[in-house]
Amino acid sequence: MVNIEYNKSITEYTTFGVPVSSNYFFAFSSVQELKSVLANNLVKDEKKLILGGGSNMLFTKNFDGIVLKNEINGIEIISENNAEVILKVGAGENWHDFVIYCVEKGWGGIENLSLIPGSVGASPMQNIGAYGVEIKDVFVELEAFNLETKKIEIFDNTTCKFGYRESIFKNSHKDKYIITSVTYKLSKNPVFNTSYGAIENQLNEMGISELSVKAISDAVIAIRSSKLPDPKEIGNAGSFFKNPIITKEKFEKLQAKFSNIANYPQADGTVKIAAGWLIDQLGWKGKTYDGYGVHKNQALVLVNYSKSNGKDIYDLSTNILNSVKEKYNIELEREVNIY
């Protein structure tokens, strides 16, 4: 029997923690359960929202439809040899728990992505990345349920069309598929990525001279913990804004005016600008309003201190976008999905 809940508060399922409810709610732990609820006459024509870890979304109003919470779990070894291991992971698995599982096995490739909130299913949706590593670097394929045909389809690295915090599931395929599993290839002889200076500095502070999967994971956890608020304590969705990528010509003009602008040259000749630096320079970091604001340690993070309204947080993000545009002529983008 399909147990659909009505007028359900979904605040506890989101890391921002703003007050929000949905007309209907159903948690599924298998594709069969998903098919059953979608066939139910009560909700089959309702607007649908897929909820994983709830870490990359901000609700500005109640959801008029059905929220489908993905709780498909499981970690399966597809193949393994002396050099690598291929794992198929349920989309409902907690991302950080999966990272730690691999770290404890000594499997390398995702240790730089430690402590990122959310679910496994969300990892390819926005090609999550941190400290020089992105999901596309270890991604093999995913299985996704087509909401129209009610069939499972397979997407590989090419068909996912990964970009910077982008994939086909954030664009043309948005709200058309439900990711049910993700397959990764991890290394038993990893090449460690410490290209971001923060990792090397943290390793030195921790007195670690011999690199390992665990050492890098521990360093990343320490860095993130010092800069980012724990969603269990302060509502947030991690980085709210993307780092903008601009042309070399535009960067050189900016650098002529702002000599210390934080930047990262890209392989294709473009330049990635640190959005946090831009926001910080404009004095937003640490600003607080009535129960919400910008985090004191990281300008990229908007926070909800006390069950604030999602619309207020959204309006704050708009004011930040406008100020950056006015000062630097750079249009920031929100990394968080707005509902």
Structure description:
With 339 residues, the protein is of the alpha+beta class. The protein folds into three domains: 5-70, 2-Layer Sandwich (Uridine Diphospho-n-acetylenolpyruvylglucosamine Reductase, domain 2), CATH 3.30.43.10; 75-187, Uridine Diphospho-n-acetylenolpyruvylglucosamine Reductase, domain 3; 235-338, Uridine Diphospho-n-acetylenolpyruvylglucosamine Reductase, domain 1. The two termini are 30 Å apart. Helix 4 packs across helix 5 (213-227). Helices cover 24% and strands 25% of the residues. Strands 6-7-12-10-11 form a five-stranded antiparallel sheet, with no helix packed on it. A four-stranded mixed sheet has the order 1-2-5-3, covered by helices on one side. It has helices spanning 31-38, 95-105, 122-125, 197-205, 213-227, 248-257, 275-281, 310-328; strands at residues 5-9, 21-28, 48-51, 57-58, 63-70, 75-80, 84-90, 129-130, 133-134, 139-146, 152-156, 177-187, 235-236, 245-246, 263-265, 271-273, 292-294, 302-304, 337-338.
